[in-house]
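Supplementary Methods, section 5.1.

A reviewer requested that the exact input to the structure prediction be made available. We therefore reproduce it here, unchanged from the version used in the analyses.
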Amino acid sequence: MKELLNLSVNLKQLRKQSGKTQKQVAEELGITYQSYQAYELGITVPTLQNFIKLAKLYDVSYDDLLNT
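The structure derived from this sequence is encoded token-by-token as follows.
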């Protein structure tokens, strides 16, 4: 469970570091703004496909997305 909390925190931090808005990231993933927002709020988790896309988008490993 801790990893899922870390994921939401890390997604927000990585997005801010990249200078992108939630809407921009959502568009790059091909999902709605609300769906991406739910990832950052820890309400839902990305699908495996979107998890992979996020790692590529932010140029980080899968472990980096989950760890602090």
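The mean pLDDT is 93. These observations are discussed further in the main text.
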